[in-house]
Write a structure and sequence with these properties.
Radius of gyration: 26 Å
Shape: globular
CATH class of the largest domain: Alpha Beta
CATH topology of the largest domain: Dipeptide-binding Protein, domain 1
Structural class: alpha+beta
CATH architecture of the largest domain: Alpha-Beta Complex
Distance between the termini: 48 Å
Oligomer: single chain
Number of helices: 16
Largest sheet: 7 strands, mixed
Number of domains: 2
CATH superfamily of the largest domain: Dipeptide-binding Protein, Domain 1
């Protein structure tokens, strides 16, 4: 056989192998626009949803939200609750592993929950797990961390004892604060456990790269217990707080998902992209907080007057194009366990009547025309929608009271860090998205003991007493009545002025499959797929 014939035979044989071989599948990548750079990837110090979106891809709690926003088993496959409603016993999945291949154990969860409540950790969201027995006492340093009501019965059995029956406890466990950390990794690496190449996670993805203010890349975790059903190989998060730039990148097909676009673009985007535009009503409230530590915001008359002068209908219709609704209550509507929220007593007045009453209150307090000058600084996180709201509110206060109003803005992480660390201000924009579907989640923000999220440092013994009573009340009807009384008091005092019931605005490429709008705004990448 000649050399030429040998080469030809070899080529034919090789070709037959290639034709019969399974094709190599291209890597599937999801490009996710995120509305800002995360402050941290340490679950003990997170508080905003742009961190949550990332962390819940990397880690899996005992419970999770599925694609429809329903609480379902996560790292725990099953659980039992004692007859008195105080003791949960969780069975962890036998095949639950960390990304380094080591097993996820009950001891990891004990370590993680103790770490959250340990005062040395200084976790801003430690209060969300206060229903666990002794959690608040541990967090205050009154008892040692080993007195927290969590126990590893064996490697795959975790027992959690509560202070009192808590109907929404499974939802609390789906919060990012309750996400576990690897005990071995944290003890070995200290604060560096959050870094790419170091982080050990138990979720559907693992962290491989992070360039701050540019991108954060995760890859499918082969050790994840349900890896066979994870359809996307790589997820890249882009921290873009410039909403116009985010929309441009979506339109250029550089991103498959864009979060929180500018509401004034809603009609144009709907005309161009149809069902790729998602307006999803959510359990969320857009509000302004007053710093009650200083005059004139320490005066309830001033707070009420400023709140009454804000035309919520204008904000909802003209700035948000009807994608958000006017609000006069801190608790948003739509919670079956609560019913209609308790609105401010001026909610039924016409806007003109409200403004007349507001002028009287302000004069009574000694400010405005003929009184002391009213100089107000509004702080907000950088965002075109928030800027338009602040500008509109400033005009309303100027026209109603002759106030001189200035605006200050910071990026989202810096804005909330400033408020959470106790920085002084006049008026500050904030928003609260339900961590769990219960009115307490919104009302507890104004407890005097809430040092992290009570931005205006409101203190009212009567309000605190009503909230304490609600925690001790086992009967759902009586508890709801008490919470309504607490909200009515809050709306009378107006340390916070609710403006809008929010909706989440998303652009979702028609390449993305499995997306479901839901009230808790939960969209884990593991439930999505990407088609070309």
């Amino acid at each position: 056989m000649t050399l030429a014939k040998i080469k030809l035979s070899t080529a034919i044989l090789l070709g037959s192998f290639l034709i019969g071989a399974s094709p190599v599948l291209a890597e599937t990548v999801l490009h996710r626009g995120n509305a800002g750079e995360p402050q941290t990837l340490d679950q003990a110090h997170t508080s905003i949803n742009i961190e949550e979106f990332i962390l819940k891809d990397l880690y899996e709690g005992l419970t999770i939200y599925d694609a429809a926003g329903k609480v379902v088993p996560g790292a725990a496959e099953t659980w039992d609750l004692s007859d008195d409603g105080l003791v949960y016993t969780f069975k962890l999945r036998a095949d639950a592993k960390w990304s380094d291949g080591s097993p996820v154990t009950a001891t990891d969860f004990v370590f993680s929950l103790q770490r959250i409540e340990d005062p040395k950790t200084a976790a801003g969201y430690a209060n969300i797990l206060f229903p666990i027995k002794n959690a608040q006492k541990v967090n205050k340093g009154e008892v040692p961390v080993d007195q927290l009501g969590v126990k590893a019965v064996d490697d795959k059995t975790l027992e959690i004892t509560l202070e009192r029956p808590t109907p929404f406890f499974l939802e609390l466990l789906a919060h990012q604060t309750a996400l576990p950390v690897s005990k071995a990794s944290v003890e070995k690496n200290g604060a560096d456990f959050v870094k790419p190449g170091v982080m050990v996670s138990n979720g559907a993805y693992k962290l491989v790269a992070h360039t701050p203010n540019d991108s954060l890349t995760t890859e499918k975790n082969p050790e994840y217990w349900d890896a066979a059903n994870v359809k996307i190989d790589k997820v890249i998060f882009y921290p873009i707080d410039d909403q116009a730039a985010s929309v441009r990148r979506f339109e250029a097909k550089e991103m498959d998902l864009a979060y929180n676009f500018s509401a004034d673009q809603l009609d144009r985007l709907r005309k161009s992209y149809g069902e790729q535009v998602h307006v999803s009503p959510t359990l969320a409230t857009y509000y302004y907080a007053f710093d009650t530590r200083q005059a004139p915001y320490s005066d309830v008359r001033v707070r009420r007057a400023l709140s009454m002068a804000v035309d919520r209908d204008f904000l909802a219709k003209e700035i948000y194009s009807g994608s958000q609704l006017p609000s006069y209550s801190m608790v948003p509507p739509g919670m079956a366990s609560y019913g209609d929220p308790a609105k401010a007593d001026f909610s039924e007045m016409s806007q003109l009547d409200r403004e007349d009453e507001a002028v009287k209150l302000m004069k009574e307090a000694g400010y405005g025309e003929g009184g002391k000058p009213l100089n107000i600084e509004i702080r907000y996180n950088t965002n075109p929608n928030h800027e338009r709201v602040a500008t509109a509110v400033a005009d309303m206060w100027k026209n109603t009271f002759g106030a001189k109003v200035s605006l200050v803005n910071l990026d989202v992480s810096s804005h909330y860090a400033y408020l959470q660390e106790g920085g002084k201000f006049n008026v500050a924009r904030a928003g609260w998205v339900a961590d769990y579907a219960d009115a307490e989640n919104f009302l507890a923000l104004s407890l005097s003991s809430n040092k992290t999220f009570n931005y205006g440092h409101f203190e009212n013994p009567e309000f605190d007493a009503l909230m304490k009573k609600s925690y001790e009340e086992a009967d759902p009807t009586a508890r709801s009545k008490t919470l309504h009384e607490a909200e009515a008091l809050l709306m009378k005092e107006q340390p916070i002025a609710p403006f809008l019931t929010q909706a989440d605005l998303w652009l979702v490429s028609d390449k993305v499959k499995g997306w479901q709008d839901n009230a808790v705004n939960a969209h884990l990448s593991r439930f999505l797929s990407v088609s070309e």
